[in-house]
Amino acid sequence: MALEKTLRICDHGHRYYKSSDCPTCPVCNEEHKPHRGFLRELSAPARNALLQEQIDTLEKLADYSEKDILTLHGVGPASLPVLRLHLAQVDLAFKS
After folding, report:
1. Contact by Cβ (8 Å): 90, 58
2. 53 CA to centre of own chain
């Protein structure tokens, strides 16, 4: 059974429909998407989860284990290969 989508209006006046209780505006999300770096390649929920924890550099990301990252709401297993790749490119890895 599909959930009914409701009209929402964000603080910036963007109108959008959502079926979940997530308050994130997809228009604002796209406008604030980084132009480069590892955060650009993640889904909006994963990117927002990392930013909520102030994980905005690969050095900060390397202070966490994969298990820690997966506990963040919005980050799923599909994000891990992207994160591993970017960490490896600068000779870093998740904490063991």
Report:
1. yes
2. 10
